[in-house]
Fold this sequence. Notes:
This protein has helices spanning 10-13, 29-33, 37-48, 144-160, 180-193, 195-207, 217-227, 232-240, 243-257, 280-300; strands spanning 23-26, 57-59, 63-64, 71-79, 82-90, 96-100, 125-126, 133-139, 165-171, 265-268, 271-274. By secondary structure, it is of the alpha+beta class.
Amino acid sequence: xxxxxxxxxxxxxxxxxxxxxxxxxxxxxxxxxxxxxxxxxxxxxxxxxxxxxxxxxxxxxxxxxxxxxxxxxxxxxxxxxxxxxxxxxxxxxxxxxxxxxxxxxxxxxxxxxxxxxxxxxxxxxxxxxxxxxxxxxxxxxxxxxxxxxxxxxxxxxxxxxxxxxxxxxxxxxxxxxxxxxxxxxxxxxxxxxxxxxxxxxxxxxxxxxxxxxxxxxxxxxxxxxxxxxxxxxxxxxxxxxxxxxxxxxxxxxxxxxxxxxxxxxxxxxxxxxxxxxxxxxxxxxxxxxxxxxxxxxxxxx
Length: 301
C-alpha cells in the first residue's frame, strides 16, 4: 500500500531541481477557475496530508519564481510540533502544484547561515574558543529530543571531537511547552553567576522533564541554587528582571533569522542540521568541515 507523505518531513524529503524533480499534485480544474481557489487548494492539501483543521493551513500570495512560467508561494502549516513551512510552485492557472525546494546549483550546497548575524557572545559555551568547528545549538528544555541530544552533543564536544569543536547554546523555547521559557530564563540567570553551573542545571532539567511542570519548576531552581551555593537574592532579581528575558527573546529572534523550525537545531559552522547528533548526517557535516579546515591549513603552508 502506498504511504502518504508526511508534511512534517516534506521539506526534507521532497526536493525540486530545475522544475523536474518534486512532489506534484493536481488540483481539480474547477478550483482553478472559481473565486475560491485558495480554499480549494487548502482543502486538497488538508486531505492529502491528513491535516485535521483547515485553519492550520496558510498560503502566501503567489509571486514570480526563478523558474520561467511558474509562480511560487509559501505553504505554512501549524502542527503539534510547531510550524512547518514549504515552498510551492504553481502554473499560472493554479491547478498544478509542486511542493518542494528550488535549488540553485550555483549557490552553496550546504545552505549555510551567516553566523556573523547571530548573537553568539555571552552565551553558554563549551570547547576551545579557537576550535575549527563552531556548533550553535537552538534548544528547548521541555523538548524530549533536546534531552536525548544533550548527552550526545556533550560527548561529541568533550570526547570524540575534543579540542576541535566549540558548542554555543541558544534558547529556543517553543510556545507549546508551558515551562520551557521560564526554565530558559532561570538557566540564563544561573549562567551569569557561574557559567559551569548552566550545564549542570540543563542536565537537571532534561533528566527531570517528566516530573517538572509550571508549578514545581521554581522549586527545582531554588533547590539547585542552594546545592550550588548560588546567590539566591541575585538569582531572584535576575529572574524577575528584563535582561535575561530579553536575551532569551534575542535567541529566539536569531532562531527565526536562521529559519529554525524545530528543536534541537544545530548550525555546524553555519550549516543547518535538525535532529539528533547520533545520526550519521551530523557526523558527516562535522567531518567535512574538519577536512576542509585541514585542507586550508595545508594550502597555507
